[in-house]
DNA sequence: TCTAAATTACTGACCAGTCAGTAATTAAAT
DNA sequence: ATTTAATTACTGACTGGTCAGTAATTTAGA
């Protein structure tokens, strides 16, 4: 009988917090906050439950850490695009596609699902998230849209409302991946979905003609 | 000291199941399945916890009942629209607006949020929901889109993918109402949102010109 | 060594589910 | 009608298991 190795029991003060929040994120997204046990998080991270309490005061504190360190860093990447692109159409495309590639298609894509599920159980985190993530992301999108309208490239639409409408299909798809996706077989092809999405919204947004009104 | 009335203790065998699932739905949507106590559901419905077990075998069974009786009836309403409308544009509008008015804007609008949150904890319910609600709803939308493409009213787009893209902004908004909505102050005006939404997607979907290509 | 990191064993609150009993309703008997 | 018996809807105290959080102990590294 080969006995199971007792435990390596490494000490790695620096890397731990990341490993713990990563493990917590994936389990919170999968099962929800209340249904996730700290023992499971610890096991996935390769430590014992007690170790969790060396780095986080409580399960709630762990939740907050997951949300905070998850998304905020990814926003910088979007904001620099405003200066990188001049053409409003290319800019908008880059922002939306960037969101998908950096967040939606990664593990981070579970955060919107998690945050939506738990917003009313953690009102303070929800407010934080709404201000630091949603409003900031919306502001970014709004600038891109406004620039397009100013230059006559986009039709005149309500900039505030359009932002939600634009991001919704991407968030929706990301949430799907973390809910029905694993249960209900075949997801449609991502590339096809993105293509159809951009085709619809950009076509719906573009002013009818480049110069004045003729084709 | 006027003593508190002990309890009316009404007996209403017929109405109970509805009252219980209604109470359960609103609490499940608010707190999530795991974080909702049966005592709270019972209290909101004006009965004791024991009564719950006269009508449902378990907390899980109650969840399933909430989902099943919640949405399925509302689908019929959509399916009859296929025959009521001939014009594809009006049909599509009626379907999407109908979804908002019958589901999205009502208490039922919490079900997508609930189902997304709990899909991976209830794979069998998720499969049921996916087949009986999502696929059925998608099929309905697809027919409307296909009719529009056939008649040259809509541009040629992938019918499968477009359905998700079309419904996403409505579902997203409904989920918002039940998550961030109560926490984070001002929601933008619904009418304005719907107007902008229809403006974008219908404009994005319409073929460039009625007859051939000229404006 | 000796300190810090991690584990293990433990506690107590909480909650799904149970069940003996009570109140309301109906039916039967006078 | 009015009491009595039988039935049915409902209650709430109780139990057993679970799990967040803690305290005692062990192990790794300087």
Automatic annotation (TrEMBL), chains A, B:
Alphabetically ordered keywords of this record = DNA-binding, Transcription, Transcription regulation
Which domain of life does the UniProt lineage start with?
Bacteria
**UniProt xrefs under InterPro entries:** Homeodomain-like_sf, HTH-type_TetR-like_transc_reg, HTH_TetR, Tet_transcr_reg_TetR-rel_C_sf, TetR_C
Task: Kindly indicate whether the keyword Transcription belongs to this entry.
Answer: yes
The keyword DNA-binding is assigned to this record: yes
What does the record give as the DNA-binding region? 37-56
The HTH tetR-type domain sits at 14-74
**Pfam family example for this protein?**
TetR_N
The protein's matches in Gene3D superfamilies, at most eight in alphabetical order, are given as:
Homeodomain-like, Tetracycline Repressor, domain 2
- PANTHER family assigned: HTH-TYPE TRANSCRIPTIONAL REGULATOR BETI, HTH-TYPE TRANSCRIPTIONAL REGULATOR RUTR
| Protein name in the entry | TetR family transcriptional regulator
